[in-house]
Specification:
The chain is α+β, with helices and mostly antiparallel strands. It contains 12 helices and 9 strands. A 5-stranded antiparallel sheet has the order 1-2-3-5-4, with helices on one face. A two-stranded antiparallel ribbon has the order 6-9.
């Protein structure tokens, strides 16, 4: 792991100063995320302004150099759909960096935690209603063969690969859970069934990581970030990701009520068919999404050493209470019981 104090911008400060027309620019390390990206805040005390410098990993850097970086393309698509995203100030392809708007540090997560501590359920619901409106705009984005996000999807292979990721990173590497040959057979059979079912449903624009750490609070609107992996997927994906987000301390009952509110709102504002479609897919999507999240928590904690993400596993398991489904009985039943007994 690279320590914070030696992280630095690749671009010379003289170049960055010219880009933002700064007078006395200072740069401080902000954070990394679950990927190979990291962020810096560039401040100019003379101008009383600040910007964020997004530094890309090697693979994304190559895409930026060839003018094919997903973040830049998808930012334009979301903005066109009326969704607030960070402003793009300047691209520095030579250094694999992008200067974007500084959206401050007020995350959706922090706001929900504050309101939860204050026991202000009404305001929590109001904040979530704003997020449901964002999801509605994303679901309205029309598919086009020319668009980047339509070239990739949560097909059966993608969905099953995420569940295999859970098996490897969480069951084996973290829990070191040993299954019998028969249990392994049941596990992989259920993974295929669940993935095939979700992949068979109608597909929409999916942010893919729409949770409380990827939504910022502006003065009077929500700002969506980390959208570069958007793709086609089930309509329940982003709704489940938001309502059953492990980063916020909400009760299961409250989450379920949020899910009902989202379903009603989306069926009224996007398409009536979403009422039926969310009813059909939500529980299956929740199981797939949370198992994948558990794999990510283990991977980010043990291998990437990004912090203690495993602390959120308890919240993830709480959301899977009552997840049993006879269509994939081992994955949603006995396996969860084994995990509960092991952890």
């Amino acid at each position: 792991m690279v320590s914070k104090d030696i992280r630095q911008a690749r671009s010379p400060i003289s170049s960055l100063s010219r880009v933002v027309e700064g007078r006395g620019l200072s740069i401080s390390w902000l954070a990394g995320d679950g990927s190979d990206r990291c962020y810096f805040r560039m401040s100019d005390s003379g101008l009383n302004k600040s910007w964020v410098l997004m530094q890309l990993g090697d693979e994304d850097r190559k895409a930026l150099e060839s003018s094919q970086y997903d973040w830049v393309v998808l930012r334009g698509i979301l903005e066109k759909a009326g969704i607030r995203v960070p402003q793009l100030h300047h691209i520095l392809p030579k250094y694999g960096e992008i200067v974007i708007e500084d959206c401050d540090d007020n995350m959706f997560e922090q706001e929900i935690k504050k309101l939860h501590k204050e026991k202000n359920q009404r305001l929590i619901e109001e904040v979530y209603q704003k997020a449901f409106a964002v999801i509605a705009r994303m679901l309205k984005i029309r598919k086009s063969k020319r668009e980047l996000w339509c070239e990739r999807s949560f097909d059966k292979n993608k969905l099953s690969s995420e569940l295999h990721f859970f098996v490897e990173k969480y069951l084996r590497n973290y829990l070191q859970l040993i299954l019998t040959k028969h249990e392994n057979s049941l596990l992989y059979e259920d993974i295929e069934k669940l993935s095939k079912f979700l992949a068979s449903r109608p597909q929409f624009f999916v942010h893919r990581d729409f949770h409380s750490r990827n939504i910022m609070l502006g003065e009077d609107e929500l700002i969506v970030i980390d959208f570069q992996d958007a793709r086609l997927g089930p309509c329940a994906y982003d709704v489940v990701s938001l309502c059953y987000d492990s980063y916020v301390p909400l009760t299961l009952d409250f989450r379920q009520n949020l899910m009902k509110e989202a379903q009603y709102f989306l069926s009224k504002t996007v398409d009536p068919i979403l009422d039926q479609e969310l009813t059909i897919t939500a529980e299956a999507m929740l199981l797939q999404r949370q198992l994948k999240a558990l794999g990510s928590f283990a991977f980010l904690t043990l291998e990437k050493q990004r912090g203690d993400f495993l602390q959120y596993r308890h919240s993830a398991f709480e959301t899977l209470s009552g997840a049993f489904d006879k269509r994939w009985p081992f994955l949603s039943g006995l396996m969860l019981e084994k995990i509960q007994n092991t952890r």
